[in-house]
């Protein structure tokens, strides 16, 4: 594991242009174009949005096969979809997007305020994690472990649209998002509200599995290849590491998140007993 690094991911971030150069305003960041839609595609992503009463769908595009499946599963269509050929959606998203015959344009979800974070369970804090695939995978793990919210920075974070939404596989509809301008200030505010803030860092003083944990718990993870920024690291109440027995000591940040969430949920007694 490299110094202060919980992501061995060195590949290119997926910052391809969104449909029509827009891709939509993210759910947790302010944009100049407040009317730009969030772009959602893929079966799990779009159906989760359709099932979420808080998500306003502006336009829905579906192939005949996708529409037949939606009808068979009794999913309410709002608004009525425009029936298109798969090639039409391909033209909107690009040939590499696995859309499964579904594309939606939607309003961003309302963001949760930092002061209204639940005082139980686990909250994730992302320190300038930029790759949308990683953030999407983190959101998916967050939904699996019933994370109360994900806090991220207003800058240096991917938009909650397109690739990120597809990677999250519907988790955008399940995990509240919080945007903050200053992460260190937000962490201090969380500590004032009783949160134990634990940063993950390879130079942490103890293994996370052996660190005393309590709720409400905030797990803080750093960017791909860089880890936690110095000020973020210094602001966390505790800094812990993930010790692993194998020869490879570094983990992709999304994998490290899943492991940290399992440890945290187990230590807090949040895992369901058989």
Q: What topology emerges from the helices and strands here?
A:
Layout: E1 38-41, H1 43-51, E2 57-62, H2 64-72, E3 82-83, H3 86-93, E4 102-106, E5 122-127, H4 132-144, E6 149-153, H5 162-168, E7 177-180, H6 183-192, E8 196-200, E9 206-207, E10 217-222, H7 230-235, E11 238-241, H8 253-267
Parallel strand pairs: 2-3, 5-6, 5-10, 6-7, 8-10, 8-11, 9-11
Antiparallel strand pairs: 1-4, 2-4
Helix pairs in contact: 4-5, 4-8
GO molecular function, one term: RNA methyltransferase activity
Family: Belongs to the class IV-like SAM-binding methyltransferase superfamily. RNA methyltransferase TrmH family.
GO cellular component, one term: cytosol
